[in-house]
Amino acid sequence: MLDQGLQALAVAAVIAVICFIPYLIYQYRRYGQFSASRLIWMGALLVYGTALLAYTLFPLPSAEWCAKPHDGLLVLDPTVYFRDMWQMHLAGRSWSSVFTSWTVLQMALNVVLFIPLGILLRNLWKVGIVRTTLIGMGISLLIEATQLTGNWFIAPCQYRVADINDLTLNTLGALIGALIAALLPRLVADADSMEAARAHAKPITRGRRWAGMMFDVAAVALVILAVDVVLTAAYLVISGVPSGDRGDAARYGEVAGIVSDACGLAVIIGFALFGSGASIGQRLVHLKPVPNARTGRFGLLLRAIATQGVALVLWSWVPSGELWAVLLLLVAVVWVLFRPRGLSLTITGCQLADARPPQVDAA
Asked: How far apart are CA 328 and CA 313, in angstroms?
């Protein structure tokens, strides 16, 4: 059980890293703001889901285990636990020892396993108690069917017990979790309230600025990677490498790198020349730079080049410039601690504003 839990945590950590930026973007586009509580609860749901998956699938059976006959892998008697407890008592064990036995512990674990599901569904999406219970039953039924069919016939044999008692106790756990969540105050920001206010301006926080900067770096890196992959794939199809000339492949790789880096720089400049002049990341977090009267649109272009553009040039075309590019980006990140509008806007004299109109008080 401990190994399964550690495996679940490891898998959840990898998925969380992959999904972190996409989920932040989703929050800003749907709610117009970042919600730490919803991020934490979604992370809890991710850990819980991977733990449930690990508990259902692992450890996988060996060929030697599958070669031997095994009985009792399908239990359809809903009174098994209670008959086991009664037989233990008839065998001379006290009720206190019966209630602390593995049979009772197994019952309790099957209930406890689904209590978090009820709490998560109620808190994150305000699912009703009846629907939460039915969802818990459906997930438990899916687990038991997976165990009955040997992971839907992918595994070499059935290696886990499919038990109707587990279905009953898991459903009870989901119901208890839903009741607990109904009695306690919600500890997560309400999605409906956030959506209702998404079209109105919010304070420009340091976290919001850092999120925009992170989105910028990720977007430019993704453009560079995509162009490089497309050019490399095209060259492989046309030239037939690896059977072709390795020297030609190396030279083409250098050209592809230059072209892909140039496309990344073009993205940085292009977003500064059109619309509000905001970068990709600033647009995702609903921010826009405001140029001063002297520089106008040219100031917006300078703002785009001042940090991210210079960092890309240093990284791509200056010998040993990678260190200087990283240092420049780190300075830009730290700068936000002291001046939230950011290094590039401070250098060019631009201001920063929310791209949405302020909320008007009806009164």
From this structure: 12
Residue at token pair 């998925």: 15
**Separation between Cα atoms, residue 124 and residue 191, nearest integer Å:** 8
What domain count does the chain have? Answer: 2
DSSP bridge pairs for 55: none
CA 95 to chain centre: 47
Mean pLDDT split into 10-residue runs, the chain, 363 residues: 67 85 93 92 90 84 87 88 83 84 89 95 93 97 94 90 94 97 89 90 94 96 94 79 60 85 95 93 95 87 94 92 95 95 93 86 49
User: Could you give phi then psi for residue 34, rounded to 5 degrees?
Assistant: -95, 140
Alpha-carbon span 169 to 109, nearest angstrom:
9
**What is the value of pTM for the model shown?**
0.81
In a domain, 363, yes or no: no
Q: Is 34 within 8 Å of 28 (Cβ atoms)?
A: yes
Residues 6+ away with beta carbon under 8 Å from 133: 118, 171, 174, 175, 178
Same domain, 12 and 112: yes
d(C-alpha 247, C-alpha 242), whole Å: 11
Q: Which residue has the tokens 């932040």?
A: 24
Rounded CA gap, 358 and 363, in Å? 15
Question: Sign of the C-alpha dihedral, residues 54, 60, 65, 71?
Answer: positive
Continuous H helices in 184-318: 191-196, 206-239, 246-273, 280-284, 296-304, 310-317
The candidate with the shortest Cα–Cα distance to 147, out of 73, 80, 77, is: 73
User: Where a domain ends, among 164, 196, 228?
Assistant: 196
3-state helix, strand, coil split of the chain in percent (to 5) is 70, 5, 25
Closest alpha carbon to 262 in 234, 227, 289: 227
Q: Which of 214, 198, 222 is nearest to 281 (CA)?
A: 214
